[in-house]
Amino acid sequence: MSSVQSQGTAVVTGASSGIGAVYAQRLAARGFDLLLVARDQQRLESAAGELREAHGVKVEVLKADLTQKDDVLKLQQRLRTDSGITLLVNNAGVAADGLLANSDAEQLERLIQLNVTAVTLLASAAAASFAKAGRGTIINIASVVALFPERFNATYSASKAYVLSLTQSLNAELEGTGVKVQAVLPGVTRTEIWERSGIDASGIPAEMVMEAGEMVDAALAGLDQGELITIPSLPDAGEWQAFVRARHVMAPNLSRSSAAERYKN
């Protein structure tokens, strides 16, 4: 199956359920071999068997807890040394509930380790390997709360704003290397992340909740169209482009030798 091999291997973190599991299905259908990463070995093995049967691709599973430094380093090393890997879906993440002032320190540290530190280290390893090869794709799963942080938990929103900023900066760093980068900003998506985080999502209006399959299909369509930032729910892409233009209008005045007049007595 040379066409399958020509796609290379896609690494998908958080692959045992939700968005990650759908990415695994869609990428297998596109002819990628897979390295599925998650904490639940049994679910990974079950998914791997189904994907091999349905698509005839090679599927490897790696049990890893990306809140643990040693597990992140193990996967980072694999990304740096396995020349067959051509795509990384940085999907593993966790949400949080409650006010920052009342939060549990250990829970915050786990969220930051998973949503920020692990994402950064894996993207770094993939960027180094892919740039050397002159090809590859890095997909980072962020969230629309990066654009509207007032509407959700402070730590989670900040972590996803970090992922958006990381992706934008990384894309600039990789310009001319042949490596593609994308940040995906889903809205509310029907996955297990809410239940795992102790958040009651039953009160969210149905018109705000997208199925994971539709979200991933839109994200991959955005990737095919060459988008750096994909917002699956946004009807008018011009609104995002206007947002970017407004940022660039400010750019020349963000660092100047004197303070703005309104700050002078």
CATH topology: Rossmann fold
The overall strand count is: 9
CATH architecture: 3-Layer(aba) Sandwich
- The residue fraction in helices comes out at 40-55%
Q: What is the CATH first-level class name? A: Alpha Beta
Percentage of residues in DSSP E strands: 15-25%
- Average pLDDT for all residues: 92
For the record, the count of structural domains works out to 1
Written as H for each helix and E for each strand, in order along the chain, the element string is HEHEHEHEHEHEEHEHEH
**Radius of gyration, in angstroms, nearest whole number:** 19 Å
Coarse structural class? alpha/beta
Give the termini separation: 73 Å
- CATH superfamily label: NAD(P)-binding Rossmann-like Domain
Reported for the largest beta sheet, the result is: 7 strands, parallel
Total helices: the number is: 9
Tell me, briefly, the overall form: globular
Low-confidence runs of at least 5 consecutive residues: 1-5
Keywords: Oxidoreductase
Pfam families: adh_short
GO molecular function: oxidoreductase activity
Protein name: SDR family oxidoreductase
3D structure, described in words:
Belongs to the short-chain dehydrogenases/reductases (SDR) family. This is SDR family oxidoreductase. The protein is an alpha/beta fold. The chain has one domain (2-238): Rossmann fold (3-Layer(aba) Sandwich). The chain is built from nine helices and nine strands. It has helices at 2-7, 18-29, 41-55, 69-81, 105-133, 154-173, 193-196, 212-224, 237-250, and strands at 9-13, 33-38, 59-63, 85-90, 137-141, 180-184, 188-190, 209-211, 229-230. The strands form two sheets. The protein has a seven-stranded parallel beta sheet, sandwiched between helices. A two-stranded parallel sheet has the order 7-8. α6 (154-173) links the parallel β5 and β6. The termini are far apart. Residues 1-5 have low confidence and may be disordered.
